[in-house]
Design brief:
The complex is a heterodimer. By secondary structure, chain A is an all-alpha fold. Chain A contains four helices and no strands. Chain B has 17 helices and six strands. Classes of the chains: A mainly alpha, B alpha/beta.
Chain lengths: ~100, ~450
């Protein structure tokens, strides 16, 4: 991939990142941070690539450690965020029962 | 397996990236937050599935086993962690993500060819390591495994200066020489720097530091996307880096702090260390019955819940008490400080857990004008967020932080475990005011006593 393309992606993503969270009430700061935290767990994709291409044992071991850490970040991140938001959902509409 | 063509791979990564954007967007509003998070998880699933189908990988069995182990560790941990301890769990997840990025970049160092590529490698190794060790220290602080006060030692700023030079020099060497030993050295410098960066941060500012480290991990992941030529990592990491930066600033402004001050405040030799003196001035303490009478014969009560309420798992009892008072025709609202708990919005999560309806929770700006007309302000397990020092004493570490004007209520009742100062480690003048009553004890126990006394009135 040529570097100017990558730079384009980078700059556009910066603006999108700024834009999507520009007006957030403080109530949602914690879940938002936790959700963003889960998203960077996608480094798992990178860890899988290096583990799959590892050409020596020590590299494989290190790469698998990276896979482990990334999995914890990704999976745990989404689960804990969901758990936080589950509680918001349950109390927002108490009259409508346990919906959402 | 390289089942997928490059075009399909790129399309699937695009799909995952769009999912992440929608996830962040969804998380920014209460109605769509949960769906947003699930969309993000879907994007992650598609991204991970794609890499397995698109790349020619060996060791797939081992990788899958490790992923299974990672999930087996993290799912129960996330499901079972107490909501009060959630901030440190997020810090830990963030740290391992940063660590993973650093390791990935380190392993790609051998395959490095161009300068741009090597710069991205050096950046990821360094920032990922800082994020990893910094997060571990924030975890230790929040878990109270170590002091929550700023840790300072003489010459700290010189050590930091030297480390910065070492980091820059190390990065240049990594870029020019590109060997693994130098990469490992840069990683070590990053780890030490992460520790030193977070040690001087006071307890109350730790959440902002988590958010900052979160943004840094995002950038490290973005740079690792450059290293691997993977657009999904680049876009996802950049999104987190950018939104995390905005979020960090928003959190800091909710606390009346600037990010610079938080990270570098202690180095400048300010008074962030907080006073440690425990004064022996007299305070007025009352019994549960006294408090019940105060509450039972008032018209308006404002409850200011704090972290101590949640630690004692007293949210349910608190809400029972509020309902008992409302049954007597007394108006009860909860005044929620933006940073009540340990993170912005944390208290809302904690109260939501106890089924306290969303409507009785009022944000600081809405509740502050109401204190003047309130008969009783009941402060349960909170301290710093009602500390008038934030307004009156410019030397105080929390000076400038917006507070709840609890002192303006006719009577203030503090439910506290002891006279120990709050998380920020500062004495609270409000405790010594003549219209303040203190009720010592475990929040849950004392609240139940007050509750039965109110019911008996």
């Amino acid at each position: 991939m040529d570097s100017i393309n990558l730079l384009t992606y980078f700059v556009l993503a910066v603006f999108v990142g700024f834009e999507v969270v520009s007006k957030v009430s403080s109530t949602l700061h914690t879940p938002l941070m936790s959700g963003a935290n889960a998203i960077h767990g996608i480094i798992l994709v990178g860890a899988i690539v290096v583990a799959g291409h590892a050409d020596s044992t020590w590299k494989l071991v290190l790469a698998l450690i990276a896979v482990l850490m990334a999995t914890v970040n990704l999976v745990g991140g989404f689960v804990v965020t969901d758990r936080m938001l589950e509680m918001f959902g349950g109390t927002k509409k108490p009259s409508k029962g346990a919906a959402s | 397996m390289s089942i997928l063509t490059e075009e399909v791979e790129a399309l699937l990564y695009l799909f995952a990236a769009v999912c992440f954007i929608l996830a962040l967007r969804g998380l920014a509003s209460p109605k769509s937050a949960r769906r947003g998070n699930l969309i993000g998880a879907l994007g992650a699933l598609v991204g991970v599935a794609t890499v397995f189908l698109a790349e020619e990988l060996s060791n797939i069995g081992l990788i899958l086993i490790v992923i299974a182990v990672g999930s087996a560790i993290s799912v129960p941990a996330s499901r079972m962690v107490k909501m009060t301890q959630m901030p440190q769990l997020v810090a830990l997840f963030n740290g391992v993500g940063g660590g993973a990025a650093a390791v990935v970049a380190f392993l790609e160092l051998g395959a490095a060819d161009t300068v741009g590529f090597l710069i991205a490698v050096a950046f990821t190794i360094f920032v990922g390591s800082v994020s990893f060790s910094g997060s571990v220290i924030t975890f230790a602080k929040l878990q109270e495994m170590m002091t929550t006060r700023p840790v300072l030692f003489p010459g700290q700023r010189y050590v930091m200066g030297l480390l910065t030079i070492a980091a820059l020099g190390g990065s240049v060497l990594v870029v020019t020489q590109g060997n693994l030993t130098l990469g490992a050295a840069l990683m070590a410098v990053g780890l030490v720097m992460g520790v030193l960066l977070v040690l001087p941060v006071g307890g109350a500012d730790v959440p902002i530091v988590i958010s900052l480290l979160n943004a840094m991990t995002g950038l490290a992941v973005a740079a690792s996307g450059l290293v691997l030529g993977n657009t999904l990592l680049l876009v996802a990491g950049t999104l987190v880096g950018a939104s995390g930066t905005i979020l960090t600033r928003a959190m800091a402004s909710a606390m009346g702090r600037s990010v610079n001050n938080i990270v570098f405040g202690a180095f400048k030799g300010g008074s962030t260390a907080g006073s440690t003196e425990m004064s022996n001035r007299p305070v007025k303490s009352g019994s549960a019955e006294d408090v019940a009478i105060l509450l039972g014969y008032s018209q308006r009560v404002i409850v200011v819940p704090g972290y101590g309420l949640a630690v004692a798992q007293a949210q349910h009892t608190m809400y029972e008490l509020a309902k008992a008072l409302e049954a007597k025709g007394i108006e009860v609202v909860f005044g929620i400080h933006p940073v009540a708990g340990r993170m912005p919005g944390h208290m809302n999560v904690l109260l939501a857990e106890a089924n306290v309806p969303y409507e009785v929770l009022q944000e600081m700006d809405d509740v502050n004008p109401q204190f003047k007309t309130a008969d009783v302000c009941l402060v349960v397990g909170a301290n710093d967020v009602v500390n008038p020092a934030a307004k009156t004493s410019p030397g105080s570490p929390i000076y400038g932080m917006p507070i709840l004007d609890a002192g303006e209520a006719k009577q203030v009742v503090f439910l506290k475990r002891s006279m120990r100062p709050g998380f920020a480690g500062i004495e609270n003048e409000l405790l010594y005011e003549p219209n303040t009553t203190l009720l010592f004890g475990d929040a849950k126990e004392t609240l139940s006593k007050v509750l039965s006394a109110v019911k008996a009135l």
